[in-house]
User: Fold this.
Amino acid sequence: MASEMSSPTLDAVQCPVCLKDFTPSTINRHLDVCLLKSVADSSPSTTEESEPPLKKYRISATAEAEPPSITASSPSSVAGAASVFSLFQTNKSKLLAPGERNGVLSSKLSPVNKGVKRNLLGEAEPGPSAGTEDMKSPGLNGHALKTSTDVSPRTLLTSNKPLAEILRPNTLEEYFGQSKVVGQQTLLRSLLDSQDIPSLILWGPPGCGKTTLAHIIASSSKKKGTARFVSLSATSTSTNEVREVIKQAQNELRLCKRRTILFIDEIHRFNKSQQDTFLPHVECGTLTLIGATTENPSFQVNAALLSRCRVLVLEKLSVEAMGSILDRAVATLGIKVLGQDQTIPKEQPQSDEPKIFIEQKALDTVAYLCDGDARAGLNSLQLAVQAQLSSARPNPSGQGGSQEILVKEDHIKEGLQRSHILYDRAGEEHYNCISALHKSMRGSDENAALYWLGRMLEGGEDPLYVARRLVRFASEDVGMADSAALPQAVSAFQACHFIGMPECEVIMAQCVIYLARAPKSVDVYKAYANVKACLRNHKGPLPSVPLHLRNAPTRLMKQLGYAKGYKYNPSFSGPVEQKYLPDELQGINFFTWTPSDL
Assistant:
């Protein structure tokens, strides 16, 4: 080792571990030996998680019990950690002395501590907004942090976190409702088992499990040490923050040979230029991108980025899947379902914890009314139980058995108020529902037409928008088969404009039923479509208007032949033989004509 050392010169490079100077040609060989020796001396052999040294030092600064090798009372260890920080600084020409490094390290630890969140047990966990790994990251000594489910049910129900976040699944076995995507013998399941995860776009309605699936993928990768997980939200992340994460991913891949999984929630919030930032790095494999969106990726995600990712469509959760999710929730919370042969988990040493019961009918109501949104279902369950816990009075006897609380169906309905209808006036569901309404009326199915009308109006759609579509339908699909259809639709539009919702809903329903029952004819629609096709497909200049059809308000125009030879139809008792089309279009019938006839 002594042979590698050289006298300090301007070109000398300092080892970040032992703080000795080496020439640029020998520093890499020395680092391999020095790092291996340092790890063998300071780290236990049973450590399972291969985390970078930098992450362990930063986490230990916030822990209550720090490893002996990184405590504040060990100046040499702190100096070693500071030198590791200096290795990644852009200005490598000025290296701090060991005493200066200690001051720099202590000054940098305070903002890190401020950014660390704590769970219900008071243990440190990194916040997602900082782009760090999620709450399921390994703990201080390589062991997993305790989950919040180790706390009493009352603490869980009265915590500030939503129940959907607290009970987020960690494994695919706890992930319900998406068997077509992650079930046995599926492509994604096999890729997860082999840790060969491609870049993904998760598309589905709110509460179907997009974010949860991304965290399960990240948890599976981190347990095997094959990747690190970074979570960002497109609603609050700038392009500079994304570039910084990409730089970290490049360093992670080059120095630690570990991939980075970048999860972008609401990726459709990024504009096209922001999405282009990912293109070269996803292409070369620097990071694995997992984007979650509730909007159609075909319209909201850049086509170039879409071609580099696999789109997974997550369906709205079924009632059966919601039932499984709610059963897992009540079992975790220690709530006993009336009518089932279940045992409540063993009591805590304190016997004053109330016993919570819930009716099976109440759980079924949640499963039906949440409209396939697991987040809405779990949070409404939490709200109903919290309300009963808050209204419960202490045991008047002051001693003896614990209090019993029953959650009924009425409590659930009071929390939900009404059905959680999935409808986005500016999104894809807006166009899906209006298309279903139009096609139902075209097919003369008045029941289906009324249903889709209700879906739109109850979901908050503007009634005037629907009324305008009905006016269009009256001419496009009914047309001349019932000449009263158009006045009926126009009257409905005017009535909606006069009185508004909710009084105009019955007027809309009347118009929809009338149009669904009316005879249908698309002759007008097809004829005008043929006229447009004729104009677009015409080769050369458009034919001029025949002279006898032109108006002649001036003497000059009359001298030029305008209106000459025109036959005024009311002056004749019978049909008039007269040409009304240009010579090039004589004999054409737009009701039967097709573009190929031109």
